[in-house]
Amino acid sequence: MEIAGEKIYPIGLGTWHMGDDPAKKTAELKALTAGLAQTTPDAKVAVDTAEMYGEGNAEKLVGAALRTIKRDSIYLISKVYPWHASKKQLPQSLDASLKRLNTDYLDLYLLHWPGDIPLEETVVAMESAKQAGKIRNWGVSNFDVTELKALAKIPAGKNCVANEVLYNLGSRGIEFDLLPYMKENKLPLIAYSPVAQGDSLGNQFLADEVLQSLAQKHQCTIFQLLLAWAIRHDNTLAIPQSSNQQHVLANFAAAKISLTEAEWELIATHYPAPTKKQPLAVL
Length: 283
Hints:
With 283 residues, this protein is an alpha/beta fold. It has helices spanning 25-36, 57-66, 89-101, 119-131, 145-152, 178-184, 196-199, 209-217, 222-230, 245-253, 261-270, and strands at 2-3, 6-7, 13-14, 45-48, 74-80, 106-111, 135-141, 160-166, 189-192, 236-239. The protein contains eleven helices and ten strands. The protein has an eight-stranded parallel beta sheet. It has a two-stranded antiparallel ribbon with strand order 1-2. The protein is globular and about 55 Å long.
């Protein structure tokens, strides 16, 4: 997939909930390092973090992992709190994130969700950070069609290069109008919680006989199947989070799973696409 002309591997590294527990730090660092090592010149590995995650601890963890690899060989994404997205505060938050991440620039900086600070002001702050060389590009997260249309009316709003939202087999609401709008406007999707947080959101994917049968046929796990499903559309980056090195490598392998059209349709009969507008789901 591509974001602003940068070729990126369609499965990346999410870091939500990482950095919270000191006892897990070694395992988390191993998992991130193993994932970053999968990067290639033709498809950079993306790692997605935020100042919110562990109140900066996830960024520190990513910063430690970045010491094991050439910085420009990976695609680094972080996010700013909505209440920090002002002309005055955003540069300070960005500098703090860069320090924790042990880098001098981000490939992509996202507004974490819509807030009370006027979008116009946030866009100006993002553009200033871009001109200063501290971010290559900027985007948004948890924006529905209404917010994206409002953004498009702002001068320089068209410079938004991605929208990160919840998307998995059990949460298909964006397919009704948000995903079509994004495709029409060539706005890539970053899908968070693509395996529904390890099937912990009540979907019971692991008990589904259709998914079990398809996973067996393709010699993969149900989680790998869910990832393959999430990236079946062009220009989608799925960012599952795992603190287990083997799970991370299995996640990356999911990009190579290829299902037939009939198999995709079989899955859709059990988990149908939306037939009406739904409120944007947020975790």
